[in-house]
Amino acid sequence: MTNLDPMPSVEDLKAQAKRLRTQLAVLNTPVSHSQSLELLAQQMGMRDWNTLQARASALSNHRPPWAVGDFVRGRYLDQPCAGRILSLSAIAGGRYRMTLHLDEAVDVVTFDSFSSFRQRINATVDSHGVSVGKRSDGVAHLVLQP
C-alpha cells in the first residue's frame, strides 16, 4: 500500500452520502439516508454500505500521524533535530518511508577530528516515529517526538 489516504474516513463518507441525498432531493428524486449510503458504496465499487464502512475503518487505522509538509522535532543519531517532511509513503508492516529536510544540518560523525553534516534524512519509521535502523549500540537512528 503506497497511497496514504486511499479512501475517506467513515465520517467523511457519511457526509458525502448526506450531500448526495440533498442533491437528489433537489432533483426531485428523494432517497432515505440508508439508500444514499448504499448508493455511495456502489459508486465506490463496494457491495454495500457495511462493506465500505468496514474497509474505511480498517484503512483509517493505518494512516500515519504525519503528512508531507508537517514540521517535526526529534533526535537523529542522538542529536536534537527539527525539520519538514518532504516525502512520506506507507510500506509493509505498518511502517513508513520518509524524507526529512532539517532546519540545521546534523553532524553524523562522532570523531573530534572529522565532521560530516547532513541536512536531508531518509528513514523508515514505525507509526510512533521510531526508525527501524539502529546504531551499533541499539539506539534508533531517528526518533520523532509525538
Automatic annotation (TrEMBL):
One Pfam match: Glyoxalase_8
Domain Glyoxalase-related protein: 6-145
InterPro entries: Glyoxalase_8
Record's protein name: Glyoxalase-related protein domain-containing protein
Organism: Litoreibacter albidus
Phylogenetic classification of the source organism: Bacteria, Pseudomonadati, Pseudomonadota, Alphaproteobacteria, Rhodobacterales
